[in-house]
Design the sequence.
């Protein structure tokens, strides 16, 4: 990407941010066995990259929540660690986020409910505040 395209990319990204549109599009959809996470990169001068990952509830070994620092704001993430060793993360900007937070304790017995962990994760700004949601740490 040459300098002119890079500047145009940054301008378009800033416009989307200013209008409350995330630079990347995230979507969570649900099926009887788990969730599907779809991620589309916002790249106006390159081919759009779309990835889709499935998380089956029976394959989830651990679930963590934390936040990442973006200088002026934080983003809360939920990460699923699967029995295969793979991990899948979802940010709070994802469509379906609220339903996901309700589905975690409904489908993973003993997992923390959002009111039990979300205040802990968001309490201190610009700190990761990683919290294990499932299984409960001993």
Sequence:
């Amino acid at each position: 990407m040459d300098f002119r395209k890079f500047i145009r990319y940054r301008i378009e990204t800033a416009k989307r941010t200013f209008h409350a549109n995330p630079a990347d599009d995230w979507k969570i959809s649900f099926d009887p066995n788990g969730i599907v996470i779809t991620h589309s990169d916002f790249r106006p001068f390159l081919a759009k990259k779309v990835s889709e990952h499935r998380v089956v509830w029976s394959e989830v070994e651990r679930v963590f929540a934390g936040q990442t620092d973006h200088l002026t704001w934080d983003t809360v993430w939920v990460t699923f660690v699967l029995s295969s060793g793979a991990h899948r993360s979802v940010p709070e900007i994802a469509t379906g986020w609220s339903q996901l937070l309700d589905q975690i304790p409904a489908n993973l017995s003993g997992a923390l409910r959002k009111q039990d962990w979300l205040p802990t994760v968001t309490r201190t700004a610009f700190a990761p505040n990683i919290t294990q949601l499932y299984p409960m740490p001993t």
User: Anything to note?
Assistant: Helices lie at 3-18, 97-107, 114-122.
